[in-house]
Amino acid sequence: MQESRFSANIKTDSKTAAWCKRLHWIYLLLLAGNNNCQPQMHRLHFYNLCICGNKIFSEKQAANNQKIKTYSCLDSFTELPPGNKTNCFLFNIPIMQLSSLLNRFNEPETLKMAKLGRELRAQGIDVIDLSLGEPDFDTPQHIKDAAIQAINDNWSHYTPVPGFLDLREAVCFKLKRDNNLDYQPENIVTSTGAKQSLANAILALVDEGDEVIIPTPYWVTYSELVKIARGKVVEVRSSVESGFKITAAQLEAAITPQTKVFLFSSPCNPSGAVYSQSELAALADVFRKYPNITILSDEIYEYINFVGKHESLASFADLKDRVVIINGLSKGFAMTGWRLGYIAASAPIAKACEKLQGQFTSGTCSITQKAAVAALKGDLRPSQAMTEEFARRREKTLALARAIPGFTCNAPEGAFYVFPDVSSYYGKKYGDTTIQNAADLSMFLLNEAHVSSVMGDAFGEPQCIRFSFANSMGNIEKAWARIGAALAKLK
Fold it and tell me: Does the pTM of the predicted model rise above 0.85?
C-alpha cells in the first residue's frame, strides 16, 4: 500500500521503483520505532518523507496540520534519486494512531522471559525454564472425565455471564468446606482465569486518581491493572528479613484520604509468604478504622501451602462484605490452560463485575465450567499429592539456592517459588558484561547458564530474582548447578 502511494508521486521506471522500496523500508523503521523519529502516537498523525539534495529527512506534522519545524535525517546516499536535482520529493505517509492506553502499562516480564527462553530453545539450546508459574502436572483424571462428558452431553452453547448456576453453587460449596465462609450464588462471578477476575474487580472499583495499596513483592499484573484503571499504585515495602510481609503499622502509614483498595496475595507470588490468622487480625484492626477501603485478597495459591491452614481476611465477619476473594483452578488443580477464575464478593461488587464482563468476554467456556464443578466438589487428593511433591522440591531448591555465595533466601511458606536477594552480584563483571541490576543478572543467567528466571523489578523488589520450582527434580538440580557455575564467573 505504501509503495503504491510513493509511485503515484513520480514516474515508475526501475530506478524510481528501487527508491520507492528504499523509502518504504524507512517507513517500516518508523513504525517499528527503530530510530529517533518515532512519534508519540497519541499526538502525531503523519510523517512527511522529504528527499532534498543527498539526504532523506522526516518532517513531523501535527494532528491539527500545523507543521512542527523539526527535521530528522533518516538516510543519505551518493546517487541522487530520479528527477531534477534541484527539486525535493515529498511523501505524506499516514501513521496508524493507537490508543494512549497502551502507554500506561507494560508487558508482563514473566511472559517476556518465557518468550526469550522459547526463542533460544528454537535455536537448539537446552534452556531450563524457571520463569513461568505453572504446575508441571496433568489435570486430574476425574476433572478431564467431566469435561469429556460435558462435550458428549452437548454443553456447547453460550453460558450465563457469571457462570452456570451449578458452578456458582460449587464455588459456594468449596468456600464453606475449605474456608468456613458462607456465600450465595449471587456473590459469585466466574471468569476466563483469575487474571480476568482481578481485572474485573479493579476496573469496577478504581477511578482515576484512586490509590491502591500493594505490599511488595506482588504479582506483576497487579500494578499494571491499576495503571490501566488510571489509579495510583502505592507500594508498601517488605524484605527478606520480614519474611516479605508488612505490618499493621506499615499499612496504616500508607493510608490516605485517596486510598480506595488494598490488594495482596497469600500465599504470595513471588515470595511464598503466607499470612497467619494473627497477622491478618492485626491488618483487620487497621481496616476497621477505614471503612471506605475495599480489600482484594488473591488466594489462587491456597492449596499450595507448606505451613498449615489457609487463612482469609474474609473470615472476619465484620469485614467480609469489604473483601473480594480472587481464586481459580490454575494452581491448585493444574488447570492453567482451562482458564477458570472466580470472585466471591458482596452482591453490589459481584453485579458490577458481571456488568463489566458482559461487555468483554461474557461467560467463560461451557466445557471448562462443567469440569470446574467436578474439581471444586470432587476428590482433593490429587491436589494434595501435588503440594506434597512441591514441598519436596522446595526443600531441594532451598538447599541449592542457599549454597550460592551471596544469595539471601528465605523459606517460602506457600506457592512454588524462591525469591532470593541477589544484590551482592551488582557491580560484578564477566567479559564485556557488567551486572547493574536484577534484569542484567536474569539475562546473564539466561544467556550464560541457559536458565530462565524473572527479575524482581517486575514484582516491585529490584534486589531479587524469582526462580520457580514447578519443574522436575532433575531439571531443578541441573538448573541450579548451571546457575552456580555461571555466577562463579562474575568477579
Answer: no
